[in-house]
Design goal:
Length: about 200
């Protein structure tokens, strides 16, 4: 390994850009590099590989309270790129146990976006926990993750699915009460966050 952090960082990014699953072995030492930027780049590269075999390490890295937030954020993003059932479980577990603190907000936000990108039905409870967050950015990302068409879109029918008993309908009403607008059209649901 090079003595220069920038060379190690670029090497890790290159492995990810090549997107060959065999690159995971090359990232084993870079992901624990003492330089945060090198380690974060290695975790980014692991997401680019989209190798489900990397999920246990990424899940552990995301959930460890001692992980640097920059690296944890990359781990959340990488799990969202892999999109395996185990990656979904890891993101849900993190969101369920993550503290609602300003320091955790960037990682929570990334985990919400990553979980919202999964297709098919999934447990919404880890996301719903965050729809009432005092942090506007977290509320917006939670809204997006809940309302994202990839989450059981077939349950959402124009104009509001099954009516008041539909999970999405109840959440949209809750979000409107928290000064978040949820706009529905025939094809998509868009969440807009902010104070009114």
């Amino acid at each position: 390994a090079s003595a220069h952090p920038e060379v190690r960082r670029r090497a890790a990014v290159t492995v990810g850009r090549l997107a060959d699953p065999r690159g995971g072995a090359l990232l084993a030492t870079a992901r624990t590099d003492a330089d945060v930027e090198v380690a974060a780049s290695a975790v980014f590269a692991m997401g680019q590989l989209r190798d489900p075999a990397l999920v246990p390490w990424l899940a552990e890295t995301l959930s460890a309270r001692t992980t640097n937030p920059i690296i944890a954020r990359e781990a959340a993003q990488a799990l969202g790129k892999i999109r395996s059932p185990e990656a979904r479980t890891a993101l849900g577990a993190y969101l369920t146990s993550a503290p609602a603190t300003p320091a955790a907000a960037p990682v929570v936000g990334e985990a919400l976006l990553s979980l919202g990108r999964f297709t098919g039905k999934g447990d919404l409870a880890p996301i719903v926990k965050w729809v009432t967050s005092p942090d506007t950015e977290i509320r917006w990302r939670a809204t997006w993750a809940v309302m994202c068409p990839s989450f059981c879109w077939e349950e959402l029918r124009w104009p509001w699915g099954a009516g008041p008993n539909c999970t999405r309908f109840r959440i949209s009403l809750l979000l409107e009460e928290k000064h978040l607008a949820v706009v529905a059209s025939g094809e998509a649901v868009i969440a807009i966050g902010g104070e009114w």
